[in-house]
């Protein structure tokens, strides 16, 4: 494997990531790896979590071992993706889609790369689907991708975890944001979740129905979902599959949202990489035929 650092200038700063090429000199398929929600870096690590995961890095390495090049990256404003003067209140979901399109083009420019597939985990799955057409992607892989709007997932989490005196105002705030209206007076108990500066981003995210987005794609789709995922469950994958009946659905027994098999992240990322690499090989055979 050959690893190198990538920097892509942008109007607002720069995007930075890691290019990992498989051994050898021949042409190879490639995947842009798009991480999940929050301030997640190129390796899949998030300062809000108690310990590093490195699940995206491990996925990249497992794919390289199977002949697939990858580019994984820090989100704008995270790690080495420098965004001077970044303000939370100006960030929109569409900005993350724009970044994926730009980085897919950068990956496609590599001499050894044949075609680029967008591989998204969790929130990254929706970003991949929205970016696919403009990125002229070979395909889209959704790993633990939601089958419902983000607001529907948040509603489920609120109803199941918050006490009634907090859940009521939280659900009312959520409904207002779903209608694309800002909420001025957020209760103190909900400021972390619905602070005014994050509301524009949430509203931009809530506009998209993942199943409807997938249904409109022309690219082939692979859906990978774990049975131990308590954040996005198998029913979400089935909703996506119903929207795209021609997609391949792979359910990984015992895998959770972090791509871990009973606490074993290397085992989970190996399982996912095997599915993705085999699917990409079939796509390449189909193109050749």
UniProtKB/TrEMBL annotation:
<feature type="domain" description="Serine aminopeptidase S33">
    <location>
        <begin position="57"/>
        <end position="259"/>
    </location>
</feature>
<dbReference type="InterPro" id="IPR029058">
    <property type="entry name" value="AB_hydrolase_fold"/>
</dbReference>
<dbReference type="GO" id="GO:0052689">
    <property type="term" value="F:carboxylic ester hydrolase activity"/>
</dbReference>
<dbReference type="InterPro" id="IPR022742">
    <property type="entry name" value="Hydrolase_4"/>
</dbReference>
<dbReference type="InterPro" id="IPR053145">
    <property type="entry name" value="AB_hydrolase_Est10"/>
</dbReference>
<keyword id="KW-0378">Hydrolase</keyword>
<protein>
    <submittedName>
        <fullName>Alpha/beta fold hydrolase</fullName>
    </submittedName>
</protein>
<dbReference type="Pfam" id="PF12146">
    <property type="entry name" value="Hydrolase_4"/>
</dbReference>
């Amino acid at each position: 494997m050959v690893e190198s650092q990538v920097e892509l200038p942008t109007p607002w700063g720069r995007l930075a990531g890691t290019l990992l090429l498989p051994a050898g000199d021949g042409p190879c398929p490639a995947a842009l790896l798009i991480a999940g929600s929050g301030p997640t870096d190129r390796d899949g690590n998030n300062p809000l979590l108690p310990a590093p995961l490195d699940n995206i890095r491990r996925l990249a390495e497992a794919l390289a071992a199977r002949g697939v090049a990858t580019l994984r990256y820090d989100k704008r404003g995270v790690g080495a993706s420098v965004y001077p003067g970044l303000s939370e209140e100006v960030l929109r979901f569409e900005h993350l889609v724009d970044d994926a399109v730009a980085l897919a083009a950068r990956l496609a420019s590599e001499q050894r790369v044949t075609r680029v597939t967008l591989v998204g985990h969790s929130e990254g799955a929706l970003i991949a689907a929205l970016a696919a057409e403009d990125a002229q992607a070979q395909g889209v892989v959704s790993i633990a991708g939601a089958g419902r709007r983000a607001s529907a997932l948040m509603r489920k989490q609120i109803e199941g975890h918050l006490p009634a005196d907090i859940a009521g105002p939280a659900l009312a705030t959520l409904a207002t944001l779903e209608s694309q209206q800002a909420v001025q007076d957020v209760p103190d108990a909900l400021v972390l979740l619905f602070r005014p500066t994050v509301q524009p981003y949430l509203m931009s995210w809530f506009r998209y129905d993942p199943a409807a987005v997938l249904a409109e794609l022309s690219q082939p789709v692979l859906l990978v979902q774990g049975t131990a995922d308590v954040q996005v469950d198998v029913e979400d994958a089935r909703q996506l599959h119903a929207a795209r009946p021609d997609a391949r659905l792979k359910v990984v027994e015992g895998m959770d949202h972090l791509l871990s098999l009973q606490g074993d992240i290397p085992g989970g990322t190996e399982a996912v990489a095997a599915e993705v690499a085999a699917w990409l090989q079939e796509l390449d055979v189909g193109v050749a035929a």
